Amino acid sequence: MPQMIAHDVMIDKVLSVTPDMTLRQIAKILVENGISGVPVVDGENHPIGMVTEKDLIAPTGDGGQKAGRERWLTQLAEGEPLSPEFLANLEHPERTAHEVMSAPVMTIPETADLSHIARLLVDYRIKRLPVVRDGLMVGIVSRADLVRQMAQEHAKPTPTPPHEGILAEAIVTLEDHFSQPPPSPAAVDTEKSDKPTVTAGAFSALVEEFDQQKATQHATDKQAGVEQRKALIQDLTDHHIDDETWQSILRKAQTAATAGQKELLLLRFPCDLCSDGGRAINAPLPDWPETLRGEAAELYHLWERDLQPTGFRLSAQVLDFPGGIPGDIGLTLVWGG
């Protein structure tokens, strides 16, 4: 029996909200549809965040008097749905999805297998994962979907497939496609005639032929670069960082510190992996983490979960500007002053 994948269990008619939608509007959607969370998408349907009931009732700095109530509400948001009465009387109903959403959002491709999805849900302590195709959301898979599938397959258990493998390397670079120069034509064709045609017009024709060959080679190289860039972005979107890879990255950071270094480049990736093409990072804007996708988003989540509480910083910067526009972006782990 073939391995089940995300496409087989995902819900393809997904409710979503926009970044400017108010909490009152979102609460109404959650209550009316009996759901506990909803993805936030931009104008092109790229998932940029997630809003859950827990986000709607998170503490807002009103003091310690509400601490007990907030803890109780948080526990409730992790279990049974909140009541329509409470959600209809939110204390900050005009706040927007952009202000409270969790970002960047974790995503999976349609081909992700169910065991891998289950591992992500457990490792990152989340309840749902948007399914993307070419960066656009086409569905969503939740814990409930996996439990439902397990119940259906209970009568015909299948062996658990081995893990598909781990990320080969956390730091990647694009190859240089412009290293092979175009072949140089001979100045005079001696095979066609014993005597070359020594005229300015003939030589100009040879120069024109050379320029045409060079332009053709450049176009071919440029297209090859575009195709490889697309393949790299797809690879960075499809593959995930498992615990073994994360521990390997941490060991590299420790080795770098032992050698006297104060930072480590964790990942180099094309700016196209960002939902805005790297503009927020280039600006820089404070909400740049919300634009991260794929492995870049996973690295941010891992840093936020494991390293930020212990004093590590994570910086993002544009590393090059081919043609005057952002090219590759680097995520760097920083521990030095």
Automatic annotation (TrEMBL):
Keywords: CBS domain, Kinase, Transferase
Residues annotated as domain CBS: 10-66, 101-156
Cited InterPro entries: CBS_dom, CBS_dom_sf, Diverse_CBS-Domain
Manganese keyword on record: no
Highest taxon of the lineage: Bacteria
Entry GO MF terms: kinase activity
Name assigned to this protein: Histidine kinase
UniProt organism field: Telmatospirillum siberiense
Organism placement in taxonomy: Bacteria, Pseudomonadati, Pseudomonadota, Alphaproteobacteria, Rhodospirillales
